[in-house]
Amino acid sequence: MQIGLVGLQYSGKTTLFKTLSKTSSNISSQKEEASIEVVKVPDERLDNLTKIFNPKKQVNATIEVFDIPGLKMSEENKVKITSTFLNSVRNNDALFYVIRAFKDETIIHPMGDVNPVRDIEFLETEFLLSDLAFLENRLEKLKKDLQKSKDERLKREFPVIEKCYAHCEKEQPLRSLHLDDNELKMLSGYQLITLKPLAIAINFDEDSIQSVDKEINDIKNQLIKLDVPVIPFFAKIELELSNLSEEDQKIFMEDYGIKESALSKILRTSYEMLGLQSFFTVGEDECRAWTIKKNYNAQQAAGVIHSDFYNKFIRAEVVHYDDFIKYGSFSKCKEAGAWRLEGKEYIVKDGDILNIRHN
Ligand SMILES: Nc1nc2c(ncn2[C@@H]2O[C@H](COP(=O)(O)OP(=O)(O)OP(=O)(O)O)[C@@H](O)[C@H]2O)c(=O)[nH]1
Ligand SMILES: [Mg+2]
Known about the structure:
- By secondary structure, this protein is an alpha/beta fold.
- It folds into 3 domains: 2-42 and 60-112 and 196-273, Rossmann fold; 126-194, Orthogonal Bundle (DNA polymerase, domain 1), CATH 1.10.150.300; 295-358, Beta-grasp domain (Ubiquitin-like (UB roll)).
- The chain is 42% helix and 19% strand.
- It is built from 14 helices and 12 strands.
- It has helices at 13-21, 44-53, 83-90, 116-148, 152-169, 181-187, 212-221, 235-241, 246-256, 262-273, 298-305, 307-311, 321-327, 330-336, and strands at residues 2-6, 35-40, 57-59, 62-67, 94-100, 198-203, 230-233, 276-281, 286-293, 313-320, 340-342, 352-358.
- A 6-stranded mixed β-sheet has the order 2-4-1-5-6-7, sandwiched between helices. The protein has a 3-stranded mixed β-sheet with strand order 3-9-8, with helices on both faces.
- Mean pLDDT is 92; it is low at 23-30.
């Protein structure tokens, strides 16, 4: 899974990226090319399992974060969308708009002044236009092809593209259009931008810590059409704090009144918007968190570990993390009836500890 940080120049993407990856020393803020970082998903439950099993290693779930260089002012004094930018944006499973709310006269805003709502609407409009142009072309091509051939797949695609086109033409992003699984599958190769799950991360400065809830509400009120998560963060402070030990970091965050780190908010929101959850495997060699979709059954979850586990699946031994902590061991869980053998149709829950039995 890959999430993209998208925005205008100097909105704080790379600063945020650095707090996520904690490798502040070697990422230059002025870097032109995009960079991708594999970010460990922190999980207290996995930490606790590691304490209990004392394995050789702990493997956290990971998510890839893609830091895309922002849109700049062009020579004609306008912020222009480029095809390189659009291609980088298309390359993600979900998007975070990183929007500037901090005021700092020494850092020039590419549109002249700080205005979060305008910047969000600008990005939305540009992405909508890009999808609309794609859909229009695709529709034309399908019309032509269908005159020549009676291909069943193309026939089925036509009404789906038509429906998407009509929706975009009404200036609605595709994420607000109801599409069933088959329709989504048909569209999946096209990387339509407004179809991707979206959240908005707004970068405030430290003067706003007290008033941030109100400021976020004001912004949301002006964006009622845009029904997506909007989360505040404080890139500059958090970058400074990310160099401290975990303990000091906690203390300073409390001092500042920051309740949750940007890293944690972004990963939590990503999991939610992508419909993801974690299950665990435990043992002497490793304790590990695995990422799966929310509706995955036991066999599909087994397949994430290894394709052999999918093909030769027999049963899954299941104990929920909460039960394991409550009873203290697998044998105690058995006595209490909290240890179960499940078949392939079992829908895995967030926090299940699985042991896959296979041929
Ligand atoms: N005062 C202040 N400065 C910030 C804040 N966040 C980022 N900056 C500064 O703004 C400048 C640009 O930040 P970056 O994180 O490099 O911005 P970016 O979005 O990656 O920019 P591009 O990659 O050019 O699109 C840097 O000098 C940062 O130190 C903030 O919250 N407050
Ligand atoms: Mg940058």
